[in-house]
Design goal:
The protein is an alpha+beta fold. The chain has three domains: 61 residues, RNA-binding S4 domain (Structural Genomics Hypothetical 15.5 Kd Protein In mrcA-pckA Intergenic Region, Chain A, Roll), CATH 3.10.290.10; 95 residues, Pseudouridine synthase, CATH 3.30.2350.10; 141 residues, Pseudouridine synthase (2-Layer Sandwich), CATH 3.30.2350. The chain is built from six helices and 14 strands. The strands form three sheets. Strands 4, 5, 6, 7, 8, 11, 12, 13 and 14 form a nine-stranded mixed beta sheet that branches. A hairpin with a 2-residue loop joins strand 11 and strand 12. It is globular, with a radius of gyration of 22 Å. The N and C termini lie far apart (63 Å). The relative contact order is 0.12.
């Protein structure tokens, strides 16, 4: 597939590789690879990634065809804590990707769902069957999966009107002095790093409510309740108030205490059942690695 871009005044003087990441949903690494493979030209010529764009330059990008994803069921011994004809509740471990994406084709939750569940909704296509919402790879905890399209639509409506309740536990860096807090700050793609999200003026509305559960020397355990569900929302919001989640590889400090991956767990979920119309609530224990670090911190207080 060929894409063409005409350089306007906003892009003048910007490096070619950065400009392409601004005008389209491509990562800098993807652009870099295609520049190295001579798939990108400016005015018909091969140029360096550092080429500074001039007004009316024509960029031609021969975008390679994406790898066709074929999903195979895989026995992954999923922790299914509830299942009926309409939905299932999964307790996802840290380190598991929810659905296939660039760089993650195998061993995703979806492959396990295809093996463990007879039916999955088709609303999100063949790559994300049954996936109503997701949690990050290095976040553990609960998510609801739809087994038919009607259930999927009803659960999506509850996500949209914020009636689907999601409560997370997070261990953050620093001692939060307040007992409660409400972070109401819009989130969008970070203009300086397209891998990350950030609080930006033109972002989508995002609200996170938190409550302090326990304080330690240099750390705080908080309960976070989502009103909205933006990408990386809790991680971005806690970093925004200068209390990033411990171990967060994107938004926290590089030096971490304990294991790699953020200490963030989707602990509770509640919603109206699509068919019975009864309220359902599920809760799971913190994973052992999370309990271990809390016990270590408690022992340090003694």
């Amino acid at each position: 597939m060929q894409k063409k871009y005409q350089v306007n005044e906003k892009l003048v003087g910007i490096r070619l590789d950065k400009a392409l990441s601004l005008v389209d949903e491509y990562s800098r690494s993807f652009i870099q690879t295609n520049l190295e493979n001579n798939n990108i030209t400016v005015n018909g010529k091969i140029v360096k990634p550092s080429y500074k764009l001039e007004l009316n330059d024509e960029i031609v990008f021969e975008v390679p065809e994406e790898k066709k994803l074929t999903l195979e069921p895989k026995n992954m011994d999923l922790d299914i804590i509830y299942e009926d004809d309409d939905l299932a509740i999964i307790n996802k471990p840290k380190g598991m990707v929810v659905h296939p994406s660039n760089g993650h084709y195998d061993d995703t939750l979806v492959s396990g769902l295809l093996h463990s569940l007879k039916n999955l909704s088709s609303i999100n296509g063949v790559i994300r069957p049954g996936i109503v919402h997701r949690i990050d790879k290095d976040t553990s905890g609960l998510l609801v999966v739809a087994k038919n399209d009607y259930a999927h639509e009803q659960l999506q409506l509850q996500l949209k009107d914020h009636s689907l309740s999601r409560i997370y536990y997070a261990l953050v860096i620093g001692e939060i002095t307040e007992e409660y807090g409400r972070i109401n700050a819009p989130i969008g793609r970070d203009p300086k790093d397209r891998i990350k999200q950030a609080v930006v003026a033109d972002g989508k509305p995002a609200t996170t409510n938190f409550k302090v559960l326990e304080r330690f020397s240099g750390y705080t355990l908080v309960e976070c309740r989502l009103e909205t569900g933006r990408t990386h929302q809790i991680r971005v919001h806690m970093a925004y108030i200068k209390h990033p989640i411990l171990g967060d590889p994107l938004y926290g400090p590089r030096k971490v205490y304990g294991t790699i991956g953020q200490y963030l767990h989707a602990k509770e979920i509640g919603f109206i059942h699509p068919t019975t119309k009864k309220y359902m609530h599920f809760e799971t224990k913190l994973p052992q690695y999370f309990e271990d670090i809390l016990n270590d911190l408690r022992n340090e207080k003694k």
